[in-house]
Amino acid sequence: MLILSRKTDEKIVIGDNIIVSIIEVRGEQVRLGINAPKNVKVYREEVFEAISAENKAAAESQAVLPKVEFLKK
Fold first, then answer.
1. Could you please report the per-residue DSSP string of 46-71?
2. Domain locations along the chain
3. What CA–CA distance (Å, rounded) separates 34 from 44?
4. Which helix (H) or strand (E) holds 45?
5. Pair 8, 22: CB distance under 8 Å
């Protein structure tokens, strides 16, 4: 893991097209601005974990098909 120290209004560049800006530091909280292409998904960790868990549960579940009864003539 790379650990960097930054001050308000300083930036970190990731690759050629992602910029992380330090917007504000208040006590133990840091506000970040992230500028990335639209095709790059950016999530908070807890949201990413929830999405991953839901996708895993959906993949493991069995499809339930409705019971269809045919009319006999």
1. HHHHHHHHHHHHHHHSPP-PPP--PP
2. 11-59
3. 12
4. helix 45-60
5. yes
Question: Cα separation of 15 and 28, whole Å?
Answer: 27
Tokens in use for 29?
């909280």
Q: Which residue has the tokens 């949201």?
A: 47
Contact 35, 19 (CB under 8 A): yes
Report the C-alpha gap between 39 and 17 in whole angstroms: 11
Token match 């807890």: residue?
46
pLDDT tens string 7-62 = 999 999 999 999 999 999 999 999 999 999 999 999 999 999 999 999 998 888 87
Please name every residue paired with 21 in a beta bridge, in sequence order, or none if there are none.
Answer: 11, 33
